[in-house]
Design brief:
Blueprint: H1 2-23, H2 28-34, H3 38-43, H4 45-67, H5 71-90, H6 95-113
Helix pairs in contact: 1-4, 1-6, 4-5, 5-6
Length: 115
C-alpha cells in the first residue's frame, strides 16, 4: 500500500512537471520554476512540449503498471524517473534531485520491501 502511494506521488509530480513544460514553459510560472529568460523560453517552447510529452509517458507507464498489476512496468518507469533526476542533477538542475530522484528512490525502496 505504501509503495503504491509513493509511486502515485511520483506520477503526480510528473503530471505537474509535464503541465509546466507543455502549458507554462514561457509563462511567468514556468519561467520562475525553470529559471529561464523569456527569450530562451520562447526559443525552446517546442522542445519543452516534447519534454513534457516524455514526462507523460513516464506517468502512463506508472499508471498502467499500477492499474493492471504489472510491477515490472511500474518498476521500470520509476527507475527511469530516478535516472532522469540524477542526470538532471548532474547537469546542473539541482531541483531534479528533490523533485524526481528522492521521491523515486523512496518509491523504489517501498517496492523492494514488498519483494
Amino acid at each position: 500500500m505504501l509503495s503504491t502511494i509513493l509511486v502515485l506521488i511520483v506520477a503526480l509530480i510528473h503530471v505537474y512537471i509535464a503541465v509546466l513544460e507543455i502549458k507554462f514553459w514561457d509563462k511567468p510560472r514556468g519561467l520562475r520554476v525553470f529559471g529561464l529568460s523569456q527569450e530562451l523560453a520562447t526559443q525552446t517552447t517546442t522542445l519543452a512540449i516534447n519534454q513534457g510529452l516524455y514526462n507523460l509517458f513516464l506517468v502512463a507507464g506508472i499508471l498502467v503498471g499500477v492499474a493492471f498489476g504489472m510491477p515490472q512496468l511500474t518498476l521500470f518507469s520509476v527507475v527511469c524517473v530516478l535516472v532522469a533526476g540524477i542526470v538532471g542533477f548532474a547537469t546542473g538542475i539541482k531541483s531534479a534531485l528533490y523533485a524526481q530522484s528522492i521521491p523515486a528512490a523512496l518509491a523504489l525502496l517501498a517496492m523492494a520491501a514488498h519483494l
